[in-house]
Amino acid sequence: MNKVQSEDSILIERFQRGDKDAFDALVQKHQARAYQYAFRLTRNPDDAADVVADAFVRVYRALQTFKGDSAFTTWLYRIETNCFLDMRKKKNARPTTSLDSALNLGDGEVELQVEDDGPTAHEEAERSQRMSAVEEAVQKLPEYQKAMIIMYHAESMSYEEIAESLNLPIGTVKSRLNRARLSLRQLLEPQSDMFAMAA
């Protein structure tokens, strides 16, 4: 058990013994990363905030019976993913389209780091264009594929952690992640020139 997990275990035990402040400490500790993950899923700050709020309400209700079979963060990701999928089901029942959603790229979302040897403004613009294309393509994937791509590539979670978070066998995670990558490649195929230049 690493340091973060052991700190979480102590806070969970305190909460289970009736210390409500321990829950506040857990929220403080994990809310930034929880929001970051929710934002990557939703690409919308309001929806991300709703997903996080809903997730922590569910955590609060279930924490009394949390046995620690998995890391708290893995459990939190599972709950967040479920909250996101529930939100999408509700939205799909009464679909609305946001003009901002495709343009909302957010700050601090740069995944593909470029070595700092001073890229030109042109190179920077091309890189930004490629990232926008990838982000838009990810948003078009089915929800489970999108969650897996984000967990693996943006959140750097292992196959085991994703399997635990989504309650799936590792083999299923690997095959679905491969299918998600293939889907992503197909979505980006029309813009393959843009990526060939970067290779």
Tell me which oligomeric state these chains represent. single chain
- CATH topology of the largest domain, by name, is Rna Polymerase Sigma Factor, Chain: A
Counting H and I runs of at least 4 residues, what is the number of helices?
9
The percent range for helix content is over 70%
Q: Give the count of structural domains.
A: 2
Structural class: mainly alpha
Largest β-sheet summary: none
Q: Mind telling me the C-alpha Rg?
A: 19 Å
CATH architecture of the largest domain: Orthogonal Bundle
For the terminal residues, how far apart are their CA atoms? 40 Å
| CATH H-tier superfamily of the largest domain | RNA polymerase sigma factor, region 2, helix turn helix motif
CATH class of the largest domain: Mainly Alpha
Low-confidence stretches: 97-116
Bin the strand percentage: under 5%
Tell the overall outline: elongated
User: Element order, helices and strands?
Assistant: HHHHHHHHH
Give a verbal description of the structure.
The chain is mainly α and 199 residues long. It folds into 2 domains: 1-94, RNA polymerase sigma factor, region 2, helix turn helix motif (Rna Polymerase Sigma Factor, Chain: A), CATH 1.10.1740.10; 119-199, Winged helix-like DNA-binding domain superfamily/Winged helix DNA-binding domain (Arc Repressor Mutant, subunit A, Orthogonal Bundle). Helix content is 72%, strand content 0%. The chain is built from 9 helices and no strands. It is elongated. The N and C termini lie far apart (40 Å). The model is unreliable at 97-116 (pLDDT under 50).
